[in-house]
Every structure is written in C-alpha cells, then in structure tokens.
Write a structure and sequence with these properties.
Blueprint lengths: L2 H9 L14 H12 L10 E6 L2 H10 L11 E8 L9 H18 L3 E6 L4 H10 L6 E10 L22
Antiparallel strand pairs: 1-2, 2-4, 3-4
Length: about 170
C-alpha cells in the first residue's frame, strides 16, 4: 500500500445523508460494530454500548427531538452509541472513547461502500433525555451519538481538508 492509498482510506469517508431504499446486511452491521469496538479507550475501559435500530417508528421518533436527523426517515438503520458512566476509572474519558468508536464506525461504513453520518447527541441534555426515553436506557448510560447507515443515494468525492496553518511545531 502506498502513502496515497493510506490517505484515500480517510478521504473516502464523507457525511452521506441520502439513502436508497435498500437494506444494510447484518454481516455489514457486525463489521461496523467490530470496527467500533476496536477503538482505543482510556485504561481499556471500553465504556461503549450500541443499539442497532431498524424500527421505523423509533427512527421517526428521534426526528422529533433531534433537529438534524431528517435522514433517519430514509436510512434503513442507525446505531446509537452510548457511554456507561457507572464504572469510570478515568472520569470523563468516556466521551473520547465513544468518539473514537464512532469514527471507526464511519470509516468502516465508507470502506464497505455504504453511507453514514454522525449525529451528535451529547452534550445536548434535551437530546440525551429524548434518546434515553425512546430506547428505555438506564440512567447510567449517556447517549453520545447516532450514526445513520444506508446505501448512498448521493455521491461525494474524496475530501482532503489539510490546512498547514493549523500545524505548529514545538510551540504555538
């Protein structure tokens, strides 16, 4: 693999919000979840839990509480990422851990030829409470994000967002 191929792996990941009327296989969902759970976590705590959702009514319910979730009306599946805060050894790091798992999911989705988009839930308390209620989540789990998944019905080219003005060497 040459160096450009390494970068293309990342450039291929784009936020896809339009989906074809096609399902996502259980095999692909398993691969996406395996990728998520291979993310690094503070102290190897792995605080993440996932709810795979294909219930149209629940997905429609999310759109009532999350202002940027209209793509859930056409996405065949979504995955809720939640952090278990009850057993934190390193307080607050569950956020970074769940973010790493979410990014791994998005990279896997792109490599599978699927489309996905990250919908932020945490730290918006009203979104957290709504998701917790819709999915009957225990209080010690904090809904972190929702990832919509489907077969893309839009095409976006690779995106290189490198900005050398944001790079500092040894000091600011």
């Amino acid at each position: 693999m040459d160096k450009q191929q390494v970068l293309n792996f990342f450039f291929k990941r784009r936020s896809i919000r339009k989906y074809k009327d096609m399902d996502v296989s259980q095999e692909d969902i398993d691969i996406i979840l395996r990728a998520a759970m291979s993310a690094p976590s503070a102290g190897n705590q792995q605080p993440w839990h996932f709810i795979v959702v294909d219930d149209r009514q629940k997905m429609k319910e999310i759109t009532k509480y999350h202002p940027y979730s209209s793509m859930l009306n056409t996405a065949p599946k979504c995955i809720i990422v939640a952090g278990d805060v009850s057993s934190q050894r390193y307080e607050g790091y569950w956020v970074q851990d769940c973010a790493a798992a979410t990014q791994n999911m998005l990279l896997a989705i792109a490599q599978l030829g699927l489309g996905g988009v990250w919908l932020g839930v945490h730290p918006r308390k009203e979104r957290e409470e709504a998701i917790r209620k819709i999915f009957n989540m225990p209080d010690h789990f904090v809904p972190f994000a929702i990832v919509a998944i489907g077969v893309p019905d839009e095409e976006k080219g690779p995106s290189d967002r490198y900005n050398p003005e944001r790079v500092h060497m040894n000091t600011w």
